[in-house]
Write a structure and sequence with these properties.
Length: 278
Amino acid sequence: MLPGNTSDRPSGRRAATPQSRIRRIAKSEAKALAKAEKSGAVTIAERPAAPRATARGTKKPAILNLAVMAIVVPGLFCTVALPAYAFQDQQDAAAEASAELQALKEDGAQTVTVSEDVVAAAVKRDTYTTTSAAAMRRAALAAEYRSWSGPSVAQLLANPPYPNFDLNQVVAVAKKYQGVPYRFGGANPAGFDCSGFTQYVYAQFGVSLPHSSRSQSSGGTAITASAALPGDLVVMDGGGHIGIYLGGNMMIDSGTPGTVVSIRAIYNPNHWFVRYGI
């Protein structure tokens, strides 16, 4: 036999395999580590046992990797490519629609021919107006004022219900009209301005007053504040406003638009008093 032929090995011994070599190495390492640990030289933490290697097992990961690549990679390519196909379809559709629209324009599809004898309809803009709440209130007061059926100033002067003039009675009559709304130029219980209010109250005693605060303030008899009595006229704002004095710096008057006849303090310190009827 030739030298080196494996058939020359004693038949009683089995050839060493890679697995047997690994086991022998691991066994010798384990003995050495155990001896070192027993002597206290080292401390070894527990760790999971290494998987046993097999000649056949080394081929499984490679086969598995090939299978994964064969399935996943084509799928990735398909996923990436799909939006491109979809986007291309949208572009093609938009281009086709644009081409059809251009063709309609060139063919005159949007042109309308109208006969020369057709008369165009007249265009007229509708007009709208809005009415504020204040304007509506003024309109209601005006309608109420016109519909007043009670006695007028002239009728009261012709037949006064209180023929005997009395200042205390003037105050009592004036208080009956609290709550009557202010109305510019008003001179009846449907609406009063300041001089219309005093005129209507005094007319019930047969005393004729002009319908003007300045005219009322310049007529009659001017009296001092110390001599003023409830029922006298009180003049403010340089003759621009007038009311009926109640005593104790209080008066009753028809004030300004949006207010009603009411009792309040004499707001202007520069005021004076005028007396009528006595």
